[in-house]
Write a structure and sequence with these properties.
Blueprint lengths: L11 H63 L15 H8 L1 H32 L5 H9 L6 H11 L5 H8 L14 H25 L4 H9 L4 H12 L1 H17 L2 H7 L11 H11 L3 H32 L1
Helix pairs in contact: 1-13, 2-13, 3-4, 3-7, 3-10, 5-11, 7-10, 10-13, 12-13
Protein name: Multiple sugar transport system permease protein
Membrane topology: Multi-pass membrane protein
Family: Belongs to the binding-protein-dependent transport system permease family.
């Protein structure tokens, strides 16, 4: 056989294997690149919610939780000559022995008892508006209007209306009823101020209820009408179970408003009187801090108010959730 001739041409099988290896190598790199991109995309999607809520969390921590922690820490220090000195539970023991603070806490209990009524009023009005009673558009505007008024203006208006010689007592005199000292009688002054607060603020709760009605399944109301259900049964068995989350929100926000937004009315209408019977914790806190210059004692009262609001809010949510499950 000759030994010096040219090499034979490559066989088709060999060339195919070489080409296949050349094609396969870029395919693996493309696959690895796509995998890395997919992993990065998945990681970005997981991190996106945390990035979006981070500014709000930072604001809450900086403007809410951190001052709250400082206030709780300050409540264990003294006032006056003991300023900055640790006194343990001394401020809390003083609060327990202060008749004005005990009165303010009893009034908190009264507000909790009146809370269902304060929520039911805007809830019923929102129901009537949703059912399109005649003039419902006008009622919506009229009911919301007091919410835009300053508490000072509302207090001044009702001071004139509820005065001993005011228009309301004049109307009572016409029908033969004696005059009532709405703001000077220790037995009814707190009820009067609470009623004015409910009137001035239920417009916001009304808007929340109307927003909740927008998520209500109208077919349920139609089925109730076909079955001949009365308005009361429709509200109890259809509307309330369907608006459980809305009712939870309104309960909690109304309670917070009662405990933290009545200062203006109390200051203008009663100034804590008569005989301290209209004191609430926020008014007590202002009195200790602003009038008596006792910031540590005021911090202790603020801490107690925060704990009360937290406990009451959690209890309300728990009870409403249980009622919703039973329905």
């Amino acid at each position: 056989m000759p030994t010096g001739g040219p090499s034979p041409p490559a066989r088709p099988a060999d060339s195919e294997r070489a080409g296949g290896a050349a094609v396969k190598q870029p395919g693996r790199r493309a696959t690895r690149t796509a995998t890395r991109q997919s992993f990065r995309r998945a990681r970005a999607e997981r991190l996106a919610p945390y990035v979006l809520v981070a500014p709000a969390v930072l604001i809450i921590v900086a403007l809410r939780l951190w001052p709250l922690a400082l206030g709780v820490n300050f409540s264990f220090t003294g006032d006056g000559e003991l300023n900055g000195t640790a006194v343990g539970l001394g401020n809390y023991l003083e609060l327990a022995g202060d008749p004005l603070f005990r009165t303010s806490m009893r009034n908190v209990g009264l507000l909790v008892l009146l809370l269902p009524l304060a929520v039911a009023i805007p809830g019923l009005l929102a129901t009537f508006i949703y059912l399109r009673v005649p003039g419902h558009r006008v009622y919506r505007s009229v009911y919301f209007f007091p919410a835009v008024l300053s508490p000072v203006i509302v207090g001044a208006i009702f001071n004139l209306m509820l005065g001993y010689d005011g228009p309301l007592n004049s109307v009572l005199a016409v029908i033969g009823a004696g005059p009532v000292d709405w703001l000077g009688d220790p037995g009814i002054a707190m009820f009067t101020v609470t009623g004015v607060h409910v009137w001035a603020t239920f417009g916001m709760a009304l808007v929340v209820f109307l927003a909740g009605f927008s998520t209500l399944d109208a077919s349920l109301l139609d089925a109730a009408r076909v079955d001949g259900a009365s308005l009361g049964r429709t509200i109890w068995h259809v509307i309330i179970p369907s608006l459980t989350r809305t009712i939870q929100f309104v309960f909690v926000t109304t309670m917070i408003g009662m405990l933290t937004s009545m200062f203006g009315l109390l200051f203008v209408m009663t100034s804590g009187g008569p005989e301290g019977t209209t004191y609430l914790p926020e008014y007590y806190i202002w009195h200790q801090q602003g009038q008596l210059n006792r910031p540590a004692l005021a911090s202790a009262a603020s801490t107690v108010l925060f704990v009360v609001m937290l406990v009451v809010g959690l209890l309300q949510i728990t009870l409403i959730r249980r009622a919703g499950r039973q329905d």
